[in-house]
Amino acid sequence: MMMLSLVAFQKHVGQAKSEKSKTGKTLVVCPLSLLHQWKNEALERFLPNTLSVHVYYGDDRDIGASLTKSDLVLTTYGVLSAEFEKNGLLTTTDWNRVILDEAHSIKNRSTGYFKTCSAVKATHRWCLTGTPIQNTLDDMFSLLCFLQYQPWSRVAWWKRVITKPYGDGDDVNALGRLKVLLTPILLRRTKHSRDKQGNMIVKLPPKHIDLVKLEFSPDERAFYQAVFDKSRAEFNGFVARGTAATSYVAIFALLLRLRQACDHPLLALGKNFEQALKTDKSGEGIAATIRSVFQPQQNESSEAYYQRIAAQLQKDMQASNRSQLTEGGSDSSDKESGSSGGLTASYIQSVIAQVEDGLESQECPICLDPPQNAVLTPCAHILCDPCLRGSLANDPENGCPVCRTVVDMAKVFKLPPPSTQSQEEDTKANGPADNVEDLQTADDGSGFESVKLRQLLRDLKAIKLENDKAESPELKRKVVVFSQWTSMLDMVSGLLTRHGFSHRSFNGGLNQEARERVLTKFAKDPSIEVLVISLKAGGVGLNLTCASVVILLDPWWNPGVEEQAVDRVHRLGQTQDVIVKRYVVKDTVEDMILQLQQRKEKLAKHVLVVAKAHDDRRSERLNLDDLRNFFH
C-alpha cells in the first residue's frame, strides 16, 4: 500500500511527466504468485481511472506504448530475465522507479535474477522484503548493490568494514556500523511498530503458535532409525577418510533423506522404484530388484512394510560397510548416483521424477534453495547453474560437488523453468496426482501411515467439528497446509479426498491463470475448507486472510521462510485470531533444525534491531561440528 500510495502521489503532483518516448514510470518486479495480488490491490484500493496498470506477462507483453503510458507496470523476475537476455523493452526503458517485491530473491549475486535486476535503468530504486537476511550478512549486501548505495555497494568496502570484522569476532563494531549505514535507507515496519503516540500502527488479531511434538509409532521409529544408521555410517565414512569438509553436498543429501523420513517414510525412499515399475513391466533387470524390495506386497500392512524396508536398509548398510573395507573405503554414495560404476536405471528414473515433480520442490545441494537457472550435470545431478560454476571455479579438480565426477560444462544440460502451460486446478486439487496414486497415505489401513498425516487428520476433524457449531459463516475457520515437498502435498490431497474434506492445491506448476482461479475459489467459496500449498511457491506475498489456521508440516532451514508463510494469513485484513501449528517429530533431525532456526533468527534480529554481541557467534554456515550433531 505504501508503494501504491507513492505512485499515486507522484501522478497527482505531475512528477512523472516526461516527453521522452522511452521513459517509463514505475516498474514492479515480483514473483509470479504475486502478480494477481499487485494488480488487485492497485485496482481495488483506488478510485477508477486513478492508476493505469499494465501486467507485462504472457500474452499481455504488447508494444512499448503501454509501458510508457502506464503508471504501474507489473512483471515477474522470470520475464525480466528473459527480456534482459534479448535486450527487450523492460531493460531498455528508462524507468522513473523500479520496485523489487520479495527482494531477497536477488540475495545471491551470482544468479541471473541479481544481474538482470541490477541492469534495469531507473532513477529511484526500492527493495521490499520481510526477510532481508535469510542466511548471512551478504544477503543484505546484495540489496545494497541493487540500490547502488555507494560506497557500501563496493565489495572492498563491505568486506573491510562489515564482514571481515564480523568474521574476526568484532561483532559489536561490525553490526554497529551496519546499523548506522542502514538507518538512512531502511524503513522497517513490523506488526509491533508504534506511532509517536505509542499506538500500534497495525492492529491485528492475536496469533497463537503451537509447536506440536510428535512421536513416531514403533514401526516408523524402526524405519527412521534404519535410515539414520545408514546415513550416519556414510557420514562417518566421510569423516574417517578426511573428506567431510569437501563433501558438504553429499552430506546434505543424507540430511534431506532424513528430513523426508520425518514427513513420510515413502518420501525418503524416493520415486526410483515407482518410476522403474512404470518403465519396465517385464520383470527383468533393475526394475525386478526394486519391485521385489520396495513394492508393497499384496495384503501387506504398513507396519510389516516398514519393518521389511528397515531390515533391507540395515542389510544394505552392513553390505556397504563390508564393501568399503574390502575395496579400500570407496564411497557408497557414489554407487547410489552411479558415479563410480555408471548411472543405474533407477537413479536416472529418480532424476526424471524430480524434474517432472517440479523444480520448485527440489533443493540445490549447495544453496539448499529451489534451483535457479537449474542445470543437470552429465552425472545426473540437479543444481543451480551459478552454484555449480562457483563450486568448479573454487576447486575445479574436485569435479561435481555431489559425486566428484569430472564435469564438462559443454555437456551440462540447462533444465527448462517451471511450466507455465495451462492446467486445470481441479485435477490437482480434488484428488491425488496419478504418479503417487499407489503411495497415498491414510490412517484407516487403506494406505501407509505417517505420524504427521495422522496428526493432520485429527486437527482437521477437530476444526471441522468446531465449524459445525459456528453460529455464523464468518466464525468458521479455513485451513492452509504448507509443506516444502509436493509429493507430501499429493499425499495430503489424497488423504483429504478420502476423508471428505473439500480442498484446493497451489504449487509452482500452475500458471498464472490457474493460480488466480485456485486462490479466488478458496477465498470466496465457503465450501472449500483447506488449501494445500507449496512452501516455496506460496509462502510469500499471497493474501490468505480468508483462512485463520496455518499448519506447517515440516520445518525449513530458514525461520524467515516459515514466518513469511504464516504472514500470508496473519496480516492486514485478518479478522479472526490465527492458530499456527508446527509439526516436529521428537528425537530426529528436526530437533537440530529448530536449533539452527534460533541461530538465524538471532542474527537477523541483531542486524535489524540493535547491534550487540552474539551469545553464540558461530558461522551461519553449518560447520563440521554442526553436522556431527545431526548424526550424533
Automatic annotation (TrEMBL):
Q: Which InterPro entries match?
A: Helicase_ATP-bd, Helicase_C-like, P-loop_NTPase, SNF2-like_sf, SNF2/RAD54-like_C, SNF2_N, SNF2_RAD54_helicase_TF, Znf_RING
Domain RING-type: from-to ranges: 364-404
- Keyword vocabulary terms for this entry: ATP-binding, Helicase, Hydrolase, Metal-binding, Nucleotide-binding, Zinc, Zinc-finger
Q: Does the keyword Hydrolase apply?
A: yes
Q: Which GO terms describe its molecular function?
A: ATP binding; helicase activity; hydrolase activity; zinc ion binding
Entry-linked CDD domains: DEXDc_SHPRH-like, SF2_C_SNF
The annotated region (Disordered) lies at 317-342, 415-444
Entry-linked Pfam families: Helicase_C, SNF2-rel_dom, zf-C3HC4_3
Question: Gene3D superfamilies per the record?
Answer: P-loop containing nucleotide triphosphate hydrolases (3.40.50.300), Tandem AAA-ATPase domain (3.40.50.10810), Zinc/RING finger domain, C3HC4 (zinc finger) (3.30.40.10)
Q: Where is the composition biased (Polar residues)?
A: 317-326
Q: Which PROSITE patterns match?
A: HELICASE_ATP_BIND_1, HELICASE_CTER, ZF_RING_1, ZF_RING_2
User: Any idea where the Helicase ATP-binding domain is?
Assistant: 1-150
Task: Domain (Helicase C-terminal): give its ranges.
Answer: 455-618
Q: Do you know which SUPFAM superfamilies this protein is assigned to? A: P-loop containing nucleoside triphosphate hydrolases (SSF52540), RING/U-box (SSF57850)
Official protein name in the record: RanBP-type and C3HC4-type zinc finger-containing protein 1
| Organism name | Phytophthora oleae
